[in-house]
Amino acid sequence: MGSIIETRNLSKSFKHFKAVTDLSFTINHGDIYGFLGQNGAGKSTTMRMLLGLIFPDSGSIYIDGEEFNNGRRHLLSKIGAIIERPDMYGYLSGWDNLKMFAALSDSTIKAARLHEVLEIVGLKGREQDKVKAYSQGMKQRLGIAIALVHKPDLLILDEPTNGLDPQGIAEMRALILSLSRDHGKTILISSHLLYEIEQVATSMIIIHKGKKVVEGKVNSLLNPDETFIEIDILPDDAIQHKIEGSEWKSMLRTAKHGSLTFKMNPERTPQLNSWLVGQGIGVTEIRSKHSLEAYFLSLTDDTVITNRAI
User: Is-annotated flag, keyword ATP-binding (predicted)?
Assistant: First the structure.
């Protein structure tokens, strides 16, 4: 379907601090695009550049194929965003907040559209309550309603699950999936809850110290054959010798006193377990460590990056 956002060689500095360096990535229509990086990696700076809140020192941003600059701010009508926690007036009702922000966005927005977005985000029936009585999850969903009200093609959500309890996180996850599946929205979502990104994202980028480390489809980057299987065993002095002559030798990564680590497809774990038991090795626990969190840390931990370069 083509790209809705494309950046080419974006760079941004604040005095002597290089926040973003030569950053290029593409978000296609229909993506749920995970934007990952440690605190200070440059995520918020990049999102602010996408929204025209700050401007890059160099590089270009394209929205639906048109270059975005000061003279083409009309392109921002294609985007709705929540950057950090949405600022709302607690003494006003959810309805009044939504109506006020809608008027700032587009004075032609009708009441029917306000009812529609409240239904989408699950706040129908609570719109007359004052926002100060809302839970944090309700405030986040009202913020998304405000971002949706002008019918944008792309939503930019900065840490939408921040501060939410487990129920609120699950509701936010379901809403994000519904916005993509049922309402055709493309979504750029940053989060420090990597498990949540793994549950919803179709594509992702990981940046580290303002630079792109990797970008691609989630199901391609998280290759099941790259899974680490950790196995706790009873001490066995002959373990190395037993594995040496087996098909599992090529998959073994570490063998420590009481533990083994294999790099392999987890579907073969039962077969490996049966082989270990057949060799008289006492297996006490098996854990799978292929996750977005493990992958993320392998790419953004400076020690790992240094070792990989060596």
Answer: yes
pTM: 0.77
Greater confidence (26 vs 216) lies with 26
Contact 286, 267 (CB under 8 A): no
Written as six digits, the tokens of 129 are 């309550």
Measured between alpha carbons, how far is 114 from 100 in angstroms, rounded to an integer?
11
Q: Which residues contact 165 (CB under 8 A, 6 or more apart)?
A: 137
Q: Which two three-digit tokens encode residue 47?
A: 């999102």
- The whole-angstrom separation of Cα 128 and Cα 236 is 67
175-209 residue pLDDT tens: 999 999 999 999 999 987 777 788 899 999 989 99
Higher pLDDT, 245 or 119: 119
CATH superfamily of 3-219: P-loop containing nucleotide triphosphate hydrolases (3.40.50.300)
Residue pair 201/32 in contact (Cβ under 8 Å)? The answer is yes
